[in-house]
Backbone:
């Protein structure tokens, strides 16, 4: 036997004899009276799963069943199911020529009561137990805050300077027209579909917002996938979407502050605090950050310490807007927007944060939105007709509200139609707004489900509409070489 083996065996023997001896000597010890009194005042602990199973006389497998019902085990199982489902559906839709976000949103809906809960309610009850959804929602909100922070990082005002006139006209027209249509149809929907206790004003304003939002990140991804991000159409679309998103989120912040306020004075205070916060961030914090992030230190800007500081800054901004009463994601978005215009820093930070949030945290938001989407609530012809009407009005308002002003600004009909199709993309950003309305009790489940389907359908339409415009252009100009 080698020297190392002798030493190893000796260590094991000493350990076994030592532990066994201590346990033998202390086998008859009891707790002192003073300690017993102290223990009696302490909160009682729940018995362990193994002890509970033994006490109840159940099978040995009961301990594992109890462990499976543990909140952490439930959350980990939800993570696995959600990430696998969203990745599979996302990859499938990419192969079909659609953005992966459409497949991820679809996966979230399929995991909810619309499919899994309908076909296999026992599995749905195990994986997505009601008592576990609160934790899932919190994780999903963190993912949304990171996503909005990244959107703020990617917001490039340079596009607005180059296409300022077209961007302002088209983006604002693409908000005003569908917003007006959304408010108008609220007159018809509110008496039958409004949530009890909700005022018509807040319901109508949220319907307007739901109709007028454009998904800037999905639009940019579509342009990149088709290779037209640097073309005049692509630059104009990005500029219009950036201006439109900034305006729409500002309107949404005002509506949320109004909905959460308890009276006129509370509304004015909340609005004043919001304006003050934006002013401080733009004219106070941004110059300080610009001096801190020296352009000569671009290589060292994504060190762990810097990333931690940036995340703390984002979280503090999100906490501030949450306390003001608008929503945490507005603070996260503004925190990203006010960071210095250093391309190397922004690109590195975006890659580090976007990969984690998009792959691991945002799918939780898709699933949670899907758990709220109950297509089975549309259980009659009238509901489906109303849902179809909402989709038609949303498409006409956004596509038409972008196409006509673009044509008046000098674009050809084909380019104007392509721009309108791009601006009609809603995707994830629409889901974020809808979930805010749901959380506030403004959008009841049936209307929420209709609007989720509207977001899915209008996003799905973008690719085919662009292909249709490309086909029409090639028929008129066979020698056209640039593919859109």
Residues:
């Amino acid at each position: 036997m080698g020297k190392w083996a002798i030493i190893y065996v000796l260590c094991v023997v000493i350990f076994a004899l030592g532990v066994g001896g201590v346990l033998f000597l202390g086998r008859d010890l009891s707790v002192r009276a003073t300690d017993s009194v102290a223990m009696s005042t302490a909160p009682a602990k729940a018995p362990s799963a193994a002890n509970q199973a033994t006490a109840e006389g159940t099978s040995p497998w009961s301990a594992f069943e109890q462990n499976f019902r543990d909140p952490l085990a439930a959350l980990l199982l939800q993570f696995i199911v959600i990430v696998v489902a969203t990745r599979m559906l996302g990859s499938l839709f990419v192969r079909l020529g659609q953005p992966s976000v459409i497949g991820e949103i679809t996966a979230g809906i399929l995991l909810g009561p619309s499919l899994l809960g309908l076909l296999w309610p026992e599995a749905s009850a195990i994986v997505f137990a009601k008592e576990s959804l609160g934790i899932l929602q919190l994780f999903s909100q963190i993912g949304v805050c990171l996503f909005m922070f990244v959107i703020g990082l990617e917001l490039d005002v340079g596009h607005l300077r180059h296409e300022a006139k077209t961007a302002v006209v088209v983006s604002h027209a693409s908000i005003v027209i569908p917003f007006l249509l959304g408010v108008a149809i609220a007159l018809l929907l509110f008496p039958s579909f409004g949530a009890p206790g909700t005022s018509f004003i807040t319901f109508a304003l949220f319907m307007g917002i739901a109709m007028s939002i454009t998904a800037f990140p999905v639009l940019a991804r579509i342009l990149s996938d088709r290779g037209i991000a640097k073309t005049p159409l692509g630059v104009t679309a990005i500029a219009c979407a950036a201006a439109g998103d900034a305006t729409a989120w500002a309107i949404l912040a005002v509506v949320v502050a109004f909905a959460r306020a308890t009276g006129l004075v509370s509304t004015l205070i909340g609005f004043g605090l919001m304006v003050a916060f934006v002013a401080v961030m733009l004219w106070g914090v941004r110059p300080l950050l610009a001096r801190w992030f020296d352009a000569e230190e671009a290589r060292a800007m994504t060190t762990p310490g810097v990333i931690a500081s940036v995340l703390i800054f984002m979280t503090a901004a999100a906490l501030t807007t949450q306390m003001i009463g608008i929503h945490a994601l507005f603070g996260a978005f503004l925190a990203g927007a006010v960071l210095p215009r250093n391309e190397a820093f922004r690109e590195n930070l975006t890659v580090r944060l976007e990969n984690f949030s998009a792959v691991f945290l945002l799918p939780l938001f898709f699933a949670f939105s899907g758990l709220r989407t109950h297509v089975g609530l549309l259980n009659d012809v009238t509901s489906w007709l109303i849902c179809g009407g909402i989709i038609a009005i949303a498409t006409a308002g956004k596509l038409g509200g972008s196409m006509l002003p673009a044509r008046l600004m000098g674009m050809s009909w084909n380019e104007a139609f392509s721009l309108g199709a791009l601006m009609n993309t809603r995707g994830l950003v629409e889901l974020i707004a809808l979930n805010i309305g749901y959380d506030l009790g403004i959008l009841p489940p049936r209307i929420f489900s209709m609007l989720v389907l509207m977001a899915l359908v209008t996003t799905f339409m973008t690719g085919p509409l662009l292909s249709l415009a490309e086909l029409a252009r090639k028929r008129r100009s066979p020698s056209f070489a640039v593919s859109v």
About this structure: The CA atoms of residues 215 and 426 lie 4 Å apart.
